[in-house]
Q: What sequence folds into this?
């Protein structure tokens, strides 16, 4: 059990570290894009929404870090 | 995109990412070698490389040949996207001074100090492998190498270019090792933040593209969309650096006038 916990902690730290908002944001963006793609007529929206969501995520994370420092 | 252009973009991305990770690993290995003995450091490095080879041999073919390509692209794309965003965020914060630059000299000194403080092997034991030096070199090589493995499997596997991605990563490691032998401890000369920004842009762009493809998005212009994504994200990164730069304090403005 302890080994499993340590294994999980290693991967959490390796993949997520101190930016859980990026992982959660990417998963939400992917979920949103998956929903848009399901309705085939919304492919254009998915093409625009995905990069926009990525930009928002990066901007939000930088803004959060900037606020935390001041 | 022409297949050659696509392959070159992929090879450059893997090469740069692997070079950055190799520099970080080399700093730790050299620190362990200088303070605990080269035998321990090199054994630790070799053991870590062996463990990584086993990992790639076990997971690589299974990932590429057994997992449906769309599922692989979506998962790998998401992973690359998270990695890429982390690299870009750090690069922006470093560029505006909100995060200390990755100073390999300082990290080297920190490791050497910590390793020198712990009990050194007795002269009679010098022929044996020192456990501390071994573990530090193993951990440094394994962790940085694991990132290289994920990037190689991600970028190479997503586009069925595993051989090319592995070759680019191997070349980067050899180049860094060669330069490391020549310049020994002068690793701070590597423009790491600029390289990390480029790698972050590549990982984020490939991640967006492949996660989208895996989900069924039909990108206009097919592979050409990767270049558009790289350009767009580069512009956003530059804009963030300009916007997030702290404004000069009133005191320093007055000082400047005086």
A:
């Amino acid at each position: 059990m302890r080994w499993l916990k340590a294994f999980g902690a290693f991967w959490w730290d390796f993949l997520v570290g101190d930016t859980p908002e990026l992982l959660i944001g990417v998963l939400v963006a992917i979920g949103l894009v998956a929903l848009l793609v399901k309705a085939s007529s919304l492919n254009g929206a998915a093409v625009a929404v995905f990069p926009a969501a990525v930009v928002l995520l990066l901007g939000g994370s930088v803004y959060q870090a900037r606020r935390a420092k001041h | 995109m022409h297949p050659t252009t696509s392959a070159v973009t992929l090879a450059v991305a893997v090469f740069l990412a692997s070079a950055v990770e190799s520099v970080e690993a080399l700093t730790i290995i050299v620190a362990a070698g200088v303070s605990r003995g080269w035998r321990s450091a090199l054994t630790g490095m070799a053991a870590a490389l062996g463990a990584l080879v086993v990992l790639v041999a076990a997971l690589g073919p299974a990932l590429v040949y057994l997992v449906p390509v769309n599922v692989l692209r979506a998962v790998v794309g998401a992973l690359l996207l998270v990695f890429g965003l982390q690299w870009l965020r750090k690069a922006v914060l470093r560029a505006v001074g909100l995060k200390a630059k990755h100073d390999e000299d300082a990290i080297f000194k920190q490791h050497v100090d910590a390793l020198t403080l712990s009990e050194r092997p007795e002269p009679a034991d010098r022929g044996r492998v020192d456990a501390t030096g071994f573990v530090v070199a193993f951990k440094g090589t394994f962790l940085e190498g694991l990132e290289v493995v994920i990037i190689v499997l991600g970028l190479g596997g997503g586009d069925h270019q595993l051989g090319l991605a592995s070759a680019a990563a191997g070349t980067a490691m050899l180049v860094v090792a060669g330069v490391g032998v020549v310049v020994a401890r002068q690793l701070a000369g590597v423009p790491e933040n600029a390289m990390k920004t480029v790698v972050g842009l590549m990982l984020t762009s490939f991640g967006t593209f492949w996660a989208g493809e895996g989900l069924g998005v039909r990108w206009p212009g097919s592979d050409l969309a990767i270049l558009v994504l790289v350009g767009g994200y580069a512009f956003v990164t530059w804009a963030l650096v300009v916007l997030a730069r702290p404004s000069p304090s009133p005191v320093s403005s007055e000082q400047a006038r005086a």
Remarks:
- The radius of gyration of chain A is 16 Å.
- Chain A touches chain B through 30 residues (CB under 8 Å).
- The mean pLDDT of chain A is 87.
